[in-house]
Specification:
FUSC family protein; transmembrane; cell membrane; mainly alpha; globular; transmembrane helix; 30 helices; 72% helix; membrane
């Protein structure tokens, strides 16, 4: 019974870890609710009034939300500086409250400075948020000069309680966070294997649904891998350990994606395109059915289940003879042992299972140290030797040169500050026409739609989501206010629930976050005895006005069009893709070892920024359907390119120690065409050369004199896998030319570009 209970708890823990990697959203919600509850408790014990309670609760929320640094020491400094900033802000608001013109002018200046402060990094962003939000709190509660001492006390209590929750009650250490992210990666890896197993068993109409699950699982695994890599340096004891974990995470991710692709290929009549795993809504390949059940397909199903078992038992302190037996059997496929008699495509899937089993073993060794080797078979022992040799070949991380920063009005923070100042001025003027008491809601909305946005399209989509969440939240606020009535502590309890929901859903949906915030505001109005349905309707009107002012300023004041923003980011992605490809090919050709994994991570980060920037173009309500489909297709092709480049980088990293990979100088010349094509596309996107075209030509195997290829000997000078990755990368780059209107070079081979 206890074992069953532990099993249920383990499964629930895995699901929670997979849905909230690192428990980051849960931690944010608990900190927010805990600091608010502690603030209210301390203030209540001291006999504070409702106005102080509301001021303290809202400030505690601001103090939690504004801290962005990852290091605990930096968080403490920002929190300490935030208190005097908050006190100065609320004092100025109280002093200027009777001087309408001066108050409005100062508010605009404060907004400009708060946004401009983003150029100073996370601390500048946090202090700017505190200054603006506390000023808004003072307007909301109607702070006066006479009541400043009580409000100062409430602010001090709020900041003190936030510090207690952050550093004592719900602390997050770099090592602890990395451990939780590792568990999330393991859980998501197991979920992806489960989705791949479902793809194996799917039939008929279920194939497309199963493929969609594999696609989603692959994207979630990649997201977690990036989160881990961004926190490695702070969560590991030294740079060498960080680099080792980074390598193992990259290997596990690449091997999982390769397994999905080869499984999809085994289901189809011809080779599956990697794009199928990256393009949302792409149908499964033709003839998407496995052969009739036989010993080979039964063995494949068994081995996928075994692989999932190995992944699920890859946590610290978990082991046993049965798991070792599973691992040994799967690893034997890497040495061509025990491969069933079946089609070459199906045998590739078995080999991929062996490679992924090795990646899981390598990841566990990197995270947990040496393991019990008493049950090792010769194949397992060879895999361990390879891993040890690779670990010994790790080089020191290279320092990246700082990027050149834009100046003047071209600097994003300066431009955004000017835009917000103009939009807020319009919001103040229009808001006061609607209401002399509620105009600050229009300013708040105008401010919020500019946070974490870079282009007019992003601001337009965020404004729409803010308004939708506010409308729905008003309805919820009316219902909750009616239920609560005059019960103060019931209202505060519901506020805590809504605050947790707001913090937990903020990274997922801006609409949901706006909904919970607006519903909470309805309760705040009830506590301040200013509630009426007219007030909430006015809240909607002010929000709509603020959103309109923000959009107006974004479109007319120093605008950054979505197309311009996406083109800039596209150029960055292509530049990073060139760097990774050139460096990997150079190392595979016998060049010096460089930091390939960091360059691959920079490519992934650039692609993530591009993906976020194209969301306005791919939004479901966009009327430009053709542009939406083109944006999705281009991003999917770039994700395919990034996968192939990551695979090349991971293979090149193995070069110093792996017996089946040896340098081949011919690769440098063979891959030059692909690199030139990437540069040509980048120049066309940047508007530098509208006449240059991409080149096509013979396969890489033929350029290498016919050696290699898919049937290359496992111990040849260059593995077939490297050639396949180069071929797929070349095809994806040529595929990019069509949607980006890059012509084919006039060499009479136009048909080749259509492949």
């Amino acid at each position: 019974m206890k074992a069953a209970g532990r099993s249920v708890r383990t499964r629930l823990g895995d699901r929670l870890a997979a849905s909230d990697p690192g428990m980051l959203r849960m931690t944010a919600g608990l900190r927010m609710v805990g600091s608010l509850a502690l603030t209210l408790a301390v203030l209540a014990v001291t006999g504070a009034g409702v106005t102080q309670l509301v001021a303290g609760a809202m400030t505690a929320a601001v103090a939690n939300f504004a801290i962005r640094e990852k290091r605990r020491g930096a968080q403490a400094v920002t929190l300490a500086l935030g208190l005097p900033v908050a006190m100065v802000s609320v004092s100025l608001a109280a002093v200027l409250s009777e001087r309408t013109t001066a108050d409005d002018l100062f508010f605009v200046v404060l907004i400009f400075c708060a946004v401009y402060a983003r150029r100073f990094g996370d601390r500048g962003t946090g202090l700017g948020l505190i200054g603006f939000q506390v000023y808004f709190v003072s307007l909301f509660i109607g702070a006066s000069v006479d009541g400043l001492p009580e409000i100062w006390a409430a602010l001090a209590v709020a900041f003190g309680c936030s510090a207690v929750l952050r550093f004592a009650v719900v602390p997050v250490t770099p090592a602890g966070l990395l451990l939780r992210l590792r568990e999330a990666f393991r859980a998501r890896l197991a979920q992806l294997v489960t989705a791949q197993l479902a793809l194996l068993d799917a039939d008929g109409d279920g194939v497309d649904e199963a493929l969609a699950d594999v696609r989603a699982g692959t994207a979630r695994l990649h997201e977690t891998a990036l989160m881990i890599q961004s926190r490695l340096e702070r969560g590991t004891p030294d740079a060498s350990s960080a680099r080792l974990v980074q390598r193992r995470i990259a290997e596990a991710e690449v091997s999982a994606e390769r397994l999905g692709l080869l499984l999809l290929t085994a289901r189809s009549a011809e080779r599956a395109d990697t794009l199928t795993l990256h393009l949302p809504g792409a149908p499964a390949p033709e003839a998407g059915r496995m052969p009739a059940p036989d010993e080979a397909t039964a063995a494949l199903r068994r081995d996928l289940l075994s692989l999932r078992t190995q992944v699920l038992h890859a946590g610290p302190g978990v082991g046993g003879t049965s798991i070792a037996h599973v691992r040994n059997r799967l690893l034997s496929y890497r040495d061509e042992e025990n491969l069933p008699a079946c089609s070459p495509a199906l045998q590739d899937v078995f080999r991929a299972i062996g490679e992924m089993s090795r990646a899981v073993m390598g990841l566990r060794i990197a995270l947990d140290g040496p393991q019990d080797e008493s049950d090792d078979t010769p194949a397992t022992a060879r895999s361990r030797e390879e891993l040890d040799a690779e670990d010994a070949a790790i080089e020191a991380v290279e320092e990246n040169e700082p990027a050149e920063e834009a100046k003047g009005l071209r600097r994003p923070t300066t431009r955004a500050a000017v835009q917000v100042a103009v939009g807020s001025s319009l919001a103040i003027a229009g808001g006061e026409l609607l209401s002399s008491q509620g105009w600050h809601w229009a300013v708040l909305t105008c401010w919020l739609v500019f946070i974490n946005t870079e282009s007019t399209g992003e601001i337009l989509v965020k404004s729409y989501r803010r308004l939708l969440g506010t409308v729905l939240g008003v309805v919820a606020g009316i219902v909750l206010a009616g239920l609560v009535g005059g019960h103060t502590w019931t209202a505060f309890a519901l506020m805590l629930v809504l605050i947790f929901a707001m913090a937990y859903t903020a990274p997922l949906s801006y609409t949901l976050m706006s909904f919970f915030v607006t519903a909470m505001v309805g309760l705040l109005y009830t506590l301040l005895h200013t509630y009426s349905w007219e007030v909430l309707v006015l809240r909607v009107a002010e929000t709509a006005l603020g959103a309109a002012c923000g959009v107006f300023a974004a479109f007319l004041v120093l605008p950054v069009r979505t197309d311009r923003r996406t083109n800039e980011l596209l150029g960055t992605v292509l530049e990073r893709l060139t760097e990774v490809t050139e460096a990997a090919v150079d190392q595979l050709s016998g060049g010096p070892a460089v930091d390939l994994l960091d360059r691959a991570r920079e490519l992934d980060e650039a692609l993530g920024e591009l993906r976020a920037a194209t969301k306005p173009l791919t939004h479901p309500v966009t009327p430009l359907r053709g542009r939406r489909d083109t944006a999705r297709y281009v991003v999917a092709l770039l994700e395919t390119c990034a996968y192939q480049a990551r695979s090349l980088a991971a293979t090149a990293e193995l070069l110093p120690a792996h017996p089946s990979i040896a340098a081949d100088p011919r690769l440098r010349g063979a891959a030059a065409r692909t690199v030139r094509n990437i540069a040509t596309i980048a120049a066309r996107v940047a508007g530098e050369d509208a006449t240059a075209g991409i080149e096509t030509g013979p396969s890489f195997a033929s350029l290498l004199g016919g050696s290699g290829g898919d049937g290359a000997s496992r111990y040849g000078r260059i593995t077939g896998r490297v050639l396949r990755h180069l071929e797929r990368l070349d095809e994806a780059v040529v595929g990019l030319a069509r949607p980006l209107d890059v012509p084919l070079a006039s060499d009479g081979r136009k048909a080749t570009a259509e492949r």
